[in-house]
Amino acid sequence: MKKFTVTILGSSAAIPTATRNLSAQLVAYGEQYFLIDCGEGTQMILKQLRIKTNKIGHVFISHLHGDHYYGLIGLISTWHLIGRRTAVHVYGPPELQNIIEIQLNASMTTLSYPLVFHHTQSEVPQMIADAGRLTITTLPLKHRIPTTGFLIKEKPLPRSIRRTETDRYGVPFTFMEKLRAGEDFVDEDGALILNNLLTIEPPAPRSYAYCSDTAWYKPLAEWIHGCTMLYHEATFMNDKAQAAEDKMHSTAAQAAQIALMAGAGKLLLGHFSARYDDLSLLQGEAEEFFSPVVIVEDGETYEIGN
Amino acid sequence: MKKFTVTILGSSAAIPTATRNLSAQLVAYGEQYFLIDCGEGTQMILKQLRIKTNKIGHVFISHLHGDHYYGLIGLISTWHLIGRRTAVHVYGPPELQNIIEIQLNASMTTLSYPLVFHHTQSEVPQMIADAGRLTITTLPLKHRIPTTGFLIKEKPLPRSIRRTETDRYGVPFTFMEKLRAGEDFVDEDGALILNNLLTIEPPAPRSYAYCSDTAWYKPLAEWIHGCTMLYHEATFMNDKAQAAEDKMHSTAAQAAQIALMAGAGKLLLGHFSARYDDLSLLQGEAEEFFSPVVIVEDGETYEIGN
Fold this sequence. Notes:
Two copies of one chain form a homodimer.
Chain A: E1 4-10, E2 24-29, E3 32-38, H1 42-48, E4 56-60, H2 72-81, E5 88-92, H3 95-106, E6 115-119, E7 127-131, E8 134-140, E9 148-154, E10 160-161, H4 163-169, H5 176-180, E11 185-186, E12 192-193, H6 195-198, E13 199-200, E14 207-211, H7 219-223, E15 229-233, H8 241-247, H9 252-262, E16 267-270, H10 280-287, E17 293-295, E18 301-303
Parallel strand pairs in A: 3-4, 4-5, 5-6, 14-15, 15-16, 16-17
Antiparallel strand pairs in A: 1-2, 1-18, 2-3, 7-8, 8-9, 9-14, 10-13, 11-12
Helix pairs in contact in A: 9-10
């Protein structure tokens, strides 16, 4: 089973702090790397963590508040300076393309590699990328400007054949594909052999949902239902519930309520306001509703596992 | 006499390294702060060095290669987020204004403070700012895209009155202004009293010249003649003289030759290619022509003194 992880590159809201960088995450699925958001300084963090950035083929930008994307132009430029050849696909709001292109034009840069923009919309969830064993789907969020989260999900694996059983029941080679897809088998005497006698249930598809920035938004729970791991912003605590509503951010408790309704496997909290020194208080508020809750740390890697 | 210093925030060329950030410098003149260039991550460096960024009233951008300005939008945004009220003046190529404004528009941000753009041209030197006791003048440089350096210079100080001498010669109060400006005095008997009997020569005006990025460009030596301290890029050594010419950068030796012809007081070398581990070799090449030569270090402060 491929290793499926997320490394937190930055988890501070709006302004970098002494211990937390601006929003960025690296999702790794085997040798495939996906970057989600790219705050200022992300290329330096990637370098510090010795992450091979040329494995990043897809970059997903949630929205155009600077703390989520000001580092993208620098990363794009550095890839050019080190002579990257393989394509980079960037997914984000339409204006992002213009913002990047006028900066490349101002420096008269023609990139050494193909940079392909894919425009997101924030009206309805949409599958925006089919990348090997994974699909990536946008999740409309509720924020001050158009914003989407992202659901990165394994495609269902085929069922595994129990070779001794298929031999015993004389299943022909030509039926194996249907068997892997879950069909029952009828032998030449007309007897029904149930699929689960002949195959083994594959591991359930794993999935990771990134939901930042957003106010409390109930439809999310349905769109990400059953996700293995949910990263949900928790900019504030209950003491600032009104600020959360006004600024269209979430409290730790709201993040946990979404995780509960979604039946998520695990909840990562991040995007913390710089005002909170003791983040265990946010964890406590979240754990009133859901468990397990993790307060992410920059530079840490979390496994997306069942 | 006011303290006049430059703090190197970044001195790497093109790509950040483990020990050097992208181009940025803070010039301090008493309580007045001036930022020259602003590579990605500059706001983080300023924070690490505990520099009070609200004292920065002027930002000078040399050119629109990303390693010299990608950090500006983040700094501008952070000032807004912390509720800055005082104006910031930004000097740079005309396209810079559009690049900043479309990013502010994309986030629907109306800044909490006035941001005033001043467009530079790279045809002839031009005084672009008159800031208290200082003037700032652009220095056209020779690079792949329009680029200017900056000369930050004290205005000449008035001469100081020798009170005992002006009493002795009966200089009236109404003549003091002319005395400070250097005029000789004629007393009521028609006798000429030379100015230097009545006044003291003020300290020579101090000045700092920032020249990056540029190929070898001889007119510079005249424009910055007599400067107290010169920061000149030295991207390459003589082993890469051809690369320097092709990419319109300078070698350490060329930087020193400009310092020599300009009669500079001291030469700071920076903007080093990441290829050089042992920068004492660049220093050696420069010292063939000029002394003293300093290989700058990020985070270090250098006094601009006579």
